[in-house]
Amino acid sequence: MKLISEAPNSVKIQKMKERVLWQHPSILKHGIDQTCMVLDDGKQDCPDFSFMVIGDSGTKPHQNFHPQRQIAELMLPHQEECSFVLHTGDVVYVVGSHEYYPQNFIEPYREFLEGGEDAKRITYDRMTFKTPILPVLGNHDYYDVPLISRLVTGSTQVFRRFFQYKNIEIGWYGSGQGNAFARAFLDYLQDIKSLEFLKEHLDTHYTAKTDTGRCLRYVPRFFTRLPNRYYTFRYGGIDFFALDSDTFNTPSPIPDTKEGESDRSELEKRRRDIEVEEIEILAARGKLNLDNPHDALQVDALNAKLNQIDEVKIDIEKQLNANIGEVIDWEQLNWLKQRLIESWCSDEVRGRVLYFHHPPYVTEASKWKQAQTLAVRHRLREVFDAVAKTVGSQIGKRPVVDLILNGHAHCLEYLQTTDTGHADSNLNCIISGGSGHRPRRHRPEGNELMEKFVSAAGDYESKVADSHLFVGRTGKDLSRVLPYSFVRIDVKPGNPPKFVVRPFVAQWSQETWQNISMQPFEL
Questions:
Q1: Coil, helix or strand for 107?
Q2: With CB atoms 3.0 to 4.6 Å apart as the test, which of 173, 252, 254, 449 could cross-link to 97 if both were Cys?
């Protein structure tokens, strides 16, 4: 049974535009930039500040432990010192449904929300943040549930208990092509039915001014909405760029060659193999008793494998269907290129941070060879090359961006790119995707990432990145160790800025939590 579906990029893009009234005449008349905001907390001009990064967090409590809540509690001592929290996507599992926002987001992060002392009274589409949590969309925030799955998983308790689907958080609703995320975090202008009310709303909340025009003013405790699915803001002289990588992660078409046909056959075989594995896992899970604590842990592990299988199947489908003509979000990529160029031409900017869901570089076992990983890498490489070509003299020996933050891989990892022969050389990349969902293992191939390049002289492989830190799942059965994590990043004054990265890890092993001390490092 196909439990998860994903809308085409064209649908995602169009739906999101409709929700924020993209380029509506009233917005154009007001000279508003819908991709920019000002985080107005009274400290946005201070060059010495801190923020936290979490990702892949939005899952339910387990029978006897709650990883997401454990990480939230580990974050609380840093709340006053940190200006905001960046979330790298997958805010709510498994299908980004509004059904699960109360349990999987509001309750775990209640101290970050106005009225959080009575979290049950907060609805997902009326959240106001004390400490800003600034997310990007993950693939699970865009997923939907096919009709047949909804009938099975949402209709009767008998079916749900028999199949144990209730334990993988799939009910009546999917994300609505990202609609739940949009209602939770974006300024959902589509709900404003009157031009008069729209004008009043714009006059009230779009009062900030930047080089690109008026924009939304994000005010903690008062108005905490984001302008768009991708956006930028400046804080402490650092330009932050939040991207929606779900709309430019489509793999390149499989070539119509003998080698391409071989690749297609291998993908189809892999799909058949994992479908057999899926049936075996479902059968094994059906024999377990949820009332038995040991069996319940096994169910959690098997559910995580099923979730991983769904992701692999979707990745394979993306590769097999890439030649059908899927839309690539060039509008967003061109926006990023232009904004990076403008950032480098501004004397007010001393650094640049990108954050988005799919990591271009990763050594987590289930993600490093995903076609989506390469697609994101290659499209960002094109953007960086174009930026460097335009403003190379300003960049000098610095990388195009100082830091890239990602999720998607359920781990904590720090990588640096090598000399790739392109403008994505010497990048610092941090993956913070271990903040709640089950951690995954490091790949057996090691810490060096190789990439295949094509040249007139012939194809060759070259190292493009080194992994310097990896925190992920180890051990098996009773000896397994599940480390969950977030990072705090302290930004220091100066140009270029220094970033001090402080990892925090809570480890679940042998039925107990242990906080692991890790050394900070400087970028």
A1: coil
A2: 173
79, 111 Cβ separation under 8 angstroms: yes
pLDDT at 154: 46
The reported pLDDT for the residue numbered 261 is 77
pLDDT mean across residues, the chain: 90
Closest by CA position to 354, among listed 379, 371, 324, 374: 379
Look at residue 275 and tell me whether its pLDDT is greater than 50.
yes
Q: Which CATH class is domain 5-38+50-250+326-522?
A: alpha beta
- For 222, other C-beta atoms within 10 Å of its C-beta total 12
- Whole-number Å distance between alpha carbons of 23 and 36: 14
Q: Is residue 402 within 8 Å of 499, Cβ to Cβ?
A: yes
Radius of gyration of the chain (CA): 22
CA 222 to chain centroid, in Å, comes to 25
Q: Is the pLDDT of residue 224 over 50?
A: yes
User: pLDDT, tens digit, for every residue of 363-405?
Assistant: 999 898 888 999 999 999 999 999 999 998 888 889 999 999 9
Q: What is the DSSP string of 261-307?
A: HHHHHHHHHHHHHHHHHHHHHHHHHHT--TTSHHHHHHHHHHHHHHH
pTM for the whole thing?
A: 0.92
Question: What's the pLDDT band for 166 if we cut at 50, 70, 90?
Answer: very low
pLDDT for 288: 77
| Cα–Cα distance measured from residue 499 to residue 502, given in angstroms and rounded to the nearest whole number | 10
Helix (H, G, I), strand (E, B) or coil at 449: strand
Q: At what angle do helices 293-320 and 371-395 cross, to 10 degrees?
A: 70
Residue 278 and residue 311: Cα distance in Å, rounded?
A: 12
What is the pLDDT confidence band of residue 281, given thresholds at 50, 70 and 90?
A: confident
Sequence-distant (≥ 6) Cβ neighbours of residue 487 within 8 angstroms = 52, 53, 412, 430, 432, 501, 502, 503, 504
Residue 413: what pLDDT?
Answer: 98
CA–CA separation, 194 vs 439, rounded Å? 47
Residue spans per domain, the chain: 5-38+50-250+326-522, 258-320
**Which tens digits make up the pLDDT trace of 405-461?**
999 999 999 999 999 999 999 999 999 999 999 899 999 999 999 998 877 777 889
Identify whether the C-beta of residue 350 lies closer than 8 Å to the C-beta of residue 237.
yes
Question: How many C-beta atoms lie closer than 10 Å to residue 270's C-beta?
Answer: 15
DSSP code string of 203-269? HHH--EEETTEEEEEEBTTTB--BSSSSEEEEETTEEEEE--GGGS-PPPPPPSSHHHHHHHHHHHH
